[in-house]
Amino acid sequence: MFKFLFDRDTWQEVYDSFSKNKLRSILTMVGVWWGILLLIGLLGSARGLENSFNRLFGDFATNSVFVWGENTSKPFKGFQEGRQVRLSLSDAKKVEENVEGIEFVVPRNQNRATVIRKFLSGSFQMAGDYPLLDQVQKKKLIHGRFINQNDIDLNRKVVLLSEDTYKQLFEKEEKAVGEYVQINSMNFKVIGIFKNGNVNMGPSTDMHIPFTTFQQIYNRGDEIGWMMITGKPEYDIKQIEADTKLLLKNLNRIHPKDKRAFGSFNLGKEFSKVTGFLTGMQFLTWFVGIATLIAGVFAIGNILLITVKERTKEIGVRRALGATPFEIKRQIVVEAVFLTLLAGVVGIITGGWILIGLDSAFGQGDDAAIVNASVSIAVVFIALVILVILGTLIGLIPAFKATSIKPIEALREE
């Protein structure tokens, strides 16, 4: 059935048709080239943005919400409005036990502390944390380790320093792990150095110490500053946030309609907005690219109609010599598909060069805006299939036009 594709005469006719009107053929192919270039370039750029976003948030449990206490705005059960709400460890425990869909609840505390080492000192934000924090907000350790359960159980005076804090307290390339620093006049052993992330969820943190040690130093007892709540992937984090606030209101005797008693930041909701934007961008890219491809393919169809008009006498001679209508149609469709595919392949190659340029210009370093801008082989294959289908469909129009003329009338054509 496809033997004609390997017939030398078939491709000789394609070449002759192309070479007779080189400029016109090239200009016609520009539309398809531009459409596939847009498709590859925009899809690759969208993938690069998605990769950058995933790298930025890859260490976070994105289906999370942060909740902290503020001031009440309504009187309730004998309490006046304006009462400051303080969360506790027991609140965190009851949230974890009673709110459906929760995977982790991480209580946290934070305060500013003065740190001294030899003749160097500074004021830094210090957080009291559990080892669980490293699972939901992974720390990129440069040296050492994170807080472990023994640190919690034994109220150890150990500390992790951020890279920036380390640079302020230690000389360049000086060993820090195993050394001691003074925090609020108490000696703490440095157990790790972590890299400052591009994104901080919650208040910025320069140092981490065991949660129990923090509570002991600042005499916080059961009180916590805020809690980070992570939901299971299949649960709606917005519903978890609403259920958590309602439970906390009941536990702390706060009016059910008080909207100011608790503050929150829903990372899952913000994350879904960004992923929705990226999905919309990819959809728009496919729409614009395919629409441009269709416009370009129609241009090829119009040019082939003109070519058929110019070749009317030639077609008449071929019909008179015994060529069937199917053979005439087949030849014109092959020319349409060839022009479409040639323009598409050039567009794919050009789009690839553009993506390589984008990656070279914007994809290097930790703060890269576009990371590994690329398209998959599957996308390239789908684009080529679309080109073949569109080329075939648009080639049928001039093909039917060519066979609609009777041979005797075609021979009379001047």
Keywords:
414 residues; elongated; alpha+beta; 54% helix; two-stranded antiparallel ribbon; single chain; six-stranded mixed beta barrel
| SS elements, strand count | 12
Supply Rg. Answer: 34 Å
Which residues sit in consecutive blocks of at least 5 with pLDDT less than 50? none
Helix content: 40-55%
User: How would you characterize the largest beta sheet?
Assistant: 6 strands, mixed, barrel
Count, helices: 13
Q: What is the helix/strand order? A: HHEEHEEHEHEHEEEHEEHEHHHHH
* Count of the domains: 2
The average pLDDT score comes to 82
Q: Report the structural category.
A: alpha+beta
Strand order in the sheet with the most strands? 3-4-9-6-8-7
% residues in beta strands: 15-25%
Shape: elongated
In whole angstroms, how far apart are the ends?
35 Å
Membrane topology: Multi-pass membrane protein
Subcellular location: Cell membrane
Main location: membrane
Keywords: Cell membrane, Membrane, Transmembrane, Transmembrane helix
What would your notes on this structure say?
The protein is of the alpha+beta class. The protein has two domains: 3-57 and 272-412, no CATH class; 106-224, no CATH class. It has helices spanning 8-20, 22-57, 89-98, 133-136, 149-153, 163-169, 211-218, 237-251, 267-310, 312-320, 325-362, 377-403, 407-412; strands at 64-69, 87-88, 102-117, 120-129, 141-144, 158-162, 180-183, 186-194, 207-210, 223-224, 226-231, 262-266. It is built from 13 helices and twelve strands. Its main location: membrane.
